[in-house]
Each structure stands twice: as structure tokens, then as C-alpha cells.
Amino acid sequence: MLRSLALIIAVSLIPVAALAAPDDAPLPIKPAPAPKAAIGKPAPGFSGMDYMGKAIKLSDYKGQIVVLEWTNPNCPFVRKHYGSGNMQKLQTYAHEKKVVWLSINSSAPDHEGHLTLDQARALFENTPPLADHYILDSSGKIGTLYGAKTTPHMFVIDKAGNLAYMGAIDDKPTVDKDDIETAHNYVRAAIDSLIAGTPVEVFSTQSYGCSVKYAD
To answer: Hey, which of 15, 113, 118, 154 has its CA 20 to 30 A from 1?
Structure first.
């Protein structure tokens, strides 16, 4: 009994520092939180590969207005805008204004709209996309970074690298091509405001379309 009591007293007298981890012990590393896309904040940087196998980085377009378009070739909402020529018309307008356009496909393998390099090249063999680059993001890394939820889901980045608009392409959330003529195009309006040096009046809206087909 006395020996046990003596042992307890001895342990209690050991300096706390002696019981702590040695100074050179590695500290647990906490992963840094992923950047989130937010209006008025720097657009999260990313890198990816386009359907021609070229490495693309957002930083390559520093100092330029950039449009990010989430897309899925099998989505009826995407087909509405491409089948009518509406998206191509907007892309052409953007090019005329020296705006960079990046289309991003975040469909995962074995999910609707997923394209391998070979499939994408075959799809665009006769009609190349008007986007500056069509990026294949099958891991969903870029889509998750921006919180892309639908196809289409649109983001506009200003010359300072800040996010100026995010949301729907327009105010007609249907698959009816006839609605395009009377629709208010938020993306074109954002581009025009940025070029004019005026604030983007409508800078965030609810996107509409098919859900982005991320991995389960």
C-alpha cells in the first residue's frame, strides 16, 4: 500500500513538460479548406485538360474576363441552348468582346454526359466547340470547387480575377426553345457591365438545368 502511494506521489511530481511530446515531434496537419466561389471574391484557381489533351489553367487568363460554363451534351436544358444556337451566339458575342470562354464537363465515368478524350474528339470532329477550351473534369474537382450544381451553370470572372456573376444563363428555366427570344440573358448582361466598367446589377441567380453528374 505504502509503495503504491509513493509511486503515485512520484509520478505527480514529474514536470508536465516531461510528459509532453518532444519538441521535434510532428504536429498533426489539418487539410486547408478548399476555396469557395463567392461573388466579389477571387475566383478559385484550377487546372485541367481540354478534349485535345492540352493543359489549361485559369491563371493563364489573368487580366481577362472569363466565362465558365458547366455543360453536359445529353442534358435537355443544354440541348435547348445549343440546339437553338443560343449558346453559340453568346459564345461568339463573348469572343467579339475579347472574353475567354471555358466549357467544363464534370460528368463522372459511367454517368450521363461523361466523355473520354476519344469520345469528345469524335463528338467535336466535324463541329468543334466555340468555347476557347472544352475541359474534361471527370473527377468533379473543378465543379466541386465552384459548387456547380446544374448544366448549364454559369460563372463570370472579371479582369481583376474576382467572381462577378454566378447562376443561370437566363430567366427562362425551361427546355422550350421558344422561350429564348423573350429571355433576359444574365451572362451577356454581366459581360456588358464589366466591359462598360459598371457594377453587375444581377450578380447571383438560381441556376437551372440537369444536376451535374458527379461520382456517387
So the answer is: 15
Does the CA dihedral 165-169-170-173 come out positive or negative? negative
Helix pair angle (76-83, 86-96), 10° resolution:
60
pTM: 0.84
- Say what the pLDDT of residue 34 is: 55
Give pLDDT tens digits for 197-215.
Answer: 999 999 999 999 999 999 9
The three grid cell numbers given for residue 105, joined into one nine-digit string? 464537363
pLDDT in tens, 111-136: 999 999 999 999 999 999 999 999 99
**Adjacent-strand bridge partners of 39:** 163
β-bridge pairing 66-70 and 100-105: parallel
Ordered by start, the domain boundaries in the chain are 36-211
We find that the CATH architecture of domain 36-211 is 3-Layer(aba) Sandwich (3.40)
Q: How buried is 159 (Cβ within 10 angstroms: 0-12 exposed, 13-18 middle, 19+ buried)?
A: middle
